[in-house]
Amino acid sequence: MSLPTRRRRWFTVCALTASAALVAIPPSAASGRGGVSPFGVRTLGQLAKEREQSVGKTMSPHLKADDDDGNEADEIAEGADQYAEARTSPGVVAPGAYGAAWRGLRNLPSTDGRWRNITDLPYDSDDPRYRDIDSNSSGGSGKVTGRMAALAADDDGYVYAGSAGGGVWRSRSGGGHWQPISDRLPAQSTGALALDGAGRLWLGTGEATTNADAYLGSGVYVLAHPHHGTFSARRRVGGDELESTTIHELRFGGGTVWAATSEGVWSHSTKKLSGPWKLEFAPNPDYLPGGSKAGDPSAPYKNIANDIAIDPKDPSKVVLAVGWRSGDDYNGFYSRTNGTWTRITGGLGDLPGDADNVGNVTFARSADGSRYYAIAQSPEQLATNPDSGLEGIFVSKSGSPTGPWTRIADYKGLAADNSALTTAGYMPGVQAWYNQFLTVDPGDPQHVYAGLEEVYETKDGGTTWSTVGPYWNFPFSCWSIDPAKQTGDCHQTTHSDQHGVAIGRYHGKPYVYVGNDGGVYKRPVAGSQDASGHATDWTSLNDGTIDTLQYYSVGIGKDLDHGGLSVTGGLQDNGQSVLRGNDKVMGSNFGGDGGDTLTDPANGCDIAQEYVYLAVQVTQNCAVNDGSWTTDASKATSYGVAPPDNATSEARFIAPLATDLKNGSTWIAGGRHIWVQTHGYAIRSGSEWTSVHDFGAGRVATAVAASGGKIYAAWCGPCNNQGFARGIAVGNADGTGWHDITLPVDGTVPNRYLSGFAVDPKNADHVFLAVNGFSRHWTEGPGAGVGHVFESTDGGTTWKDISANLPDVPTDSALVTADGGLAVATDLGVVYRAPGRTTWQRVGDLPAVAVLQLKTSPDGGTLYAATHGRGIYTIRLRDLD
Predict the structure, then answer these.
(1) Which end of the chain is more exposed for a tag (fewer CB within 10 A), N or C?
(2) pTM for this entry
(3) Contact 382, 359 (CB under 8 A)
(4) How far apart are CA 638 and CA 636, in angstroms?
């Protein structure tokens, strides 16, 4: 787990105040806005400069934290890497780990009580109540949900949406009124969705968007009657060959289904679903599981396949697009000659065949077989071009995937077609390795929709293009921050960062459906455009019945204005949500990637929201603002208060932030240093933080907790599997008593990512530790050890493994309940150890979704779970015992 405010890095060279936060934007982007940036502290020009500085730093699959200079493309890559590091370091995880963990959790006894989803209602990213300096409201995305990785649609009004971490959903009404249909599967991460000629729905699990995603899949499944049924683990295709992979595409031809995966290209009969998958091609088989180099740190990047193109005139002719987005010797296009897969080195025309220029590729063919289209990302462009990583969009007018291919679009041409991304350093295709889709109108082989950061359309085979779904509306003269309007005179656009596309019919009318970091949107295939070529008829299908929101955190406080509670949470690419006591629709009061969250239990409008790398904003009125700050800077209601480690990028992508259990005005933030500030929500400047401990160069905090002035802090450095190291330091908020804990080499505390502390509110020396990753049974790395939950009764000096019957599953955080129970969040749900017990129970019946953080209500009676794919859930604690 975007520049632009959503994923932008906040400007943190110096502490920002309301009077200093307004920055000039380039004249070309300022029309209609009086020169005031609608996203306050970040501009396209600033972002472009940072990207130019960072070019060339993305070639290694193991990015260092300080390699990121603040641009969105690097942030996505770094976020994915860091997310994976927590689960894989110090080695490489063997296939089958998540499947075994899911079976183990399902076999645990279950507590009483039922989870209740409290975020299953619309989430309006343009909520006019929240138009403060760091909100994206008025950008034009409208109602949103979590990242959508793949889509499928038929001609009977059925639409299927596969999310990044929240499973597959079905609509029977052309979009909207969604129902989950994959909750019984052991993996809720979608890589590919496809309908075959018989109307069956095929699901490839394991999202391949970044090729470093933490959520691997459990294989391919088929739903024979998708109008009515739900996916079942019994309907997995083949054996376990594709378990623990990611699947980019599923393609059909000649009675065969082909799968482009993170472990090569595989095939299977579409008629007989039993029997193993056949490995068709792996460029570096020694790096596959069981191979001689399977434990190599680069193994996950050595056999990445992106797509398969099948000749419609002869299904035996197949072209494979293979390659790691940042470049490798094996990158290229391959075809089979005399039974052997061979790189295509010539005859492709404009489509490059050399390894340096073939990265992530997506194919699409016309229904009549007359044309093939392709989007290609270039590793060389990614490394050297500060503007874009896009090689181009191409067409094969022969209808054959072997070409010859002609380039029909490049990033400069797309930018000139009224794109919102026209600033040098941030132009179309800057994230082409992350954002790609392509489809052809079944009724017209020259009518094509292409997705990068934005949505593009051509009706003449690529001679001309329109940006029908601009990144957002801020750069355009039609934009207005007026709360009486959504975006002024601009029409709604889609959320940015495109991943999935499908064309289907509803009541006989064809629609195009697009999936992106904000959910699902649709418009008529032959839709209308304004004079700028922007679509006038997008409809958000994120009606609240589909909740795939990817929370990193949750905060709860009393709603003093309306009664009840105010619930907030930080989200992947959807900022911070706020749900107040009388709300029927959630609003978004901060933009960007929402990280950790602090909320005053006594006042739910006192909020601190973290963006990435410890970029922290604080508000004391829920960031309610009508946009008046654009003309009077003193009317801003949120403030940048980032600790200094943000300016140097010496912090994790999602960095730890906490309050002292005994004193909510004492905050602790972790980067290279442990930072403390004692002004609570009244803090107004990053200069108010004090460093109380320095881990040293190359080390960064992974977890912090405090009670009564005593602080526990975990660190890693290096944090990837190339020399991974971890440790714990303990000290006081006043800077005294800091010392490193000696962790025995016997594995008492494993050499894995230390993800969370839970301090006993009655005794600060009594603390629990959650450990991520998999044990040595699955992790090929030094000191992986065993166990996931540890206890100390002497202030962290010694630890005891209390994992007991807890399955081998990555744990993300822990919480001590008021009565002494212990709740633990894992990658596959929540477990609980009742007071006085030594064994664990599974809490309720959540799908196989990651839970990243747990909090309790102000009265301590309700447990809140922030899931990374299915929203926020609650359960009453009294029902667990």
Answers:
(1) C
(2) 0.93
(3) yes
(4) 6
